[in-house]
Amino acid sequence: MKALTIKDVARQAGVSPKTVSRVINGEAHVRPAVREAVSRVVAEMNYQPNAFARSLSSARSFLIGLFFDDPACSYANDVLLGALDRARSLGRHVVIETVALDRPDWQARLEESLVGLKLGGAILTPPICDCEGLIAIFERHGVPLVRIAPGTDVDRTPHVRIDDRAAARTMAEHLIHLGHRDIAFIKGNPTHHSAHRRWLGFQDALDAAGMTLDEQAVLQGDFTFRSGIVAAEALLHGARRPSAIFASNDEMALGVLVAAMRAQIAVPQKLAIVGFDDAQLARMAWPQLTTIRQPNSEMAAAAVSLLAERSDGPDGARSSIELPYELMVRASSCSP
Known about the structure:
This protein is α/β, with parallel strands linked by helices. It is 45% helix and 14% strand.
């Protein structure tokens, strides 16, 4: 079947292709009756305008860049799905870009991408959302930014986040209420500011319960499955085995679960394991992981909406959105 074109819509509506373009792009100087008629034909014909063509024919760009340092991780998949779905509903299109800050030429590569893509806006994900040099490049090119979960200079750009500190405290309190007193904690990647906020939330819960923190029960991870295994093996074979382990994300929690299986430690009867994120793997694991649901897809969708608001009318655009988290209690945690 031949793909619909703007000329097909114009012919059906009895107007010029330029008028159809003005209606689709939300431009002024179109009579209300004509705008309504064109919009009705667009809907009836299910016409989907090409984002690249729209950007070329309009002073506005309908392309949104979604920037990751690691687009292959499970977190990136959730973010991408949320961004794509919301962008489609708003008539925008998403392009995925990678920024590898460990490459000596990352700045030149980014500059080249921005010149070629002519983005209408960009979304920066952790941890690159806190890179001063990267943010400055977008500002120099005049590309509107929205950051997801920034940790520094948060008022510099619009942003979307959850309260990581409160969420981590909620999880730690869950373990404390179950009766756990020997709780170990695996920190996340120190380049992510959310990792530090989760560590502070864990400390808040212990302080409120009058519990003393055992420094030997706190190990550094990096948000990867492998680091969860390494940290768990050290904790499980140490002088004092904890009754519960709180890993700062689900990938590390899954590593803890594997380490416990290797050591033939029953979960949750002999060891409670909890994570953070509610990634798909949290529900695929056995037992399923108790975790904090961070609404990654919804956060990405909200970031797209913030960019669209600034494009459509920056005076009324919101500057930040904080979404709620949820404690997801599953089979990996119980009383000691």
